[in-house]
Amino acid sequence: MASQDTDTTRTDQLTFQDPVERYPSISPPEDQQPEPGSQQDLTPAADLGEFSYRGTGRLTGRKALVTGGDSGIGAAVAIAFAREGADVAITYLPAEEEDAREVERIITETGRKAALLPGDLTDAEFCAEVVDRAVSALGGLDILVNNAGKQIATESIEEITDEQLESTYQANILAMFRLVKASLKHLQPGSAIINTTSVQAYQPSPTLLDYASTKAAINNFTKGLAQQLAPQGIRVNAVAPGPIWTPLQPSGGQMPEQLPEFGQSVPLGRAGQPTELAPAYVFLASPESSYVLGETLNVNGGSPTP
Ligand code: NAD
Ligand code: MG
Hints:
By secondary structure, the chain is an alpha/beta fold. It has 6 helices and 7 strands; from the N terminus they run βαβαβαβαβαβαβ. The protein has a single domain, classed as 3-Layer(aba) Sandwich (Rossmann fold), CATH 3.40.50.720. A 7-stranded parallel beta sheet has the order 3-2-1-4-5-6-7, with helices on both faces. Strand 1, helix 1 and strand 2 form a beta-alpha-beta unit.
């Protein structure tokens, strides 16, 4: 069923406003969802930009693949890309079909093409084939957003099972190598690769040793790959979110007792909403950032970064 925005007071990302007040500080319950989490079950609900992201033609005619585009930051990026004029393919886990359908609906209502590509990025074969499937569905590819990620908090290193360690590294960093390898034959000069890293790359929580170390690797990979692909006219950059309210957090990403204070310790005093990340990805994907390569754009509510 198509939803309709009936809130006439609503602003968009281009409205002059106080960033402290743009969204309320949230205090989520300690309730847990099963991994990988569901956008539709997220309490409180998060803003993916359906009614708050206004496009201005910055990605007209572009073709993007966004991993983990069913929910959270990836969904907000997929929606913003469509609003900016791009066709968008998203990958997600088969269990996330319902969330993916909702993103498909929003992209399609925007008048752009959406392609749904379910599968597991810890599977090397899926990584190799999903890019070709995106290219067939969209008729090409010029933006790759490596955004899917796994985050499971544990009290001690002894609780990190080998299965968790390996699947976190597979999903967060090994998949990036594989997806980039599979994409290069399709990407022409002007194309952009954007990797999602994290403030955890520089400020690792003691409960996220496996996750945080993949994020440091992603930052490093981004800076190396950017140099390698620059002569081909392909720009590689990263976005490093701070605490953003997405299904990742209440599905094992945080210790439950941390959830009621989620995001409150950053200088802005509140967690970020997924759609607040989207302009960073749009900027890095758009030709206007032609001289920006190997950069990590921090979108974190003001936490200092190196
Ligand atoms: P999210 O749960 O909405 O999105 C993560 C997505 O990753 C899932 O929807 C799922 O489709 C995908 N994924 C996970 N494991 C996968 C697998 N094995 N195969 C295929 N897909 C898989 O959460 P999010 O917070 O929007 O996460 C997006 C990215 O942002 C992640 O890389 C995460 O590390 C990063 N990040 C999030 C925060 C935050 O506070 N939410 C902060 C910093 C970085
Ligand atoms: Mg999801």
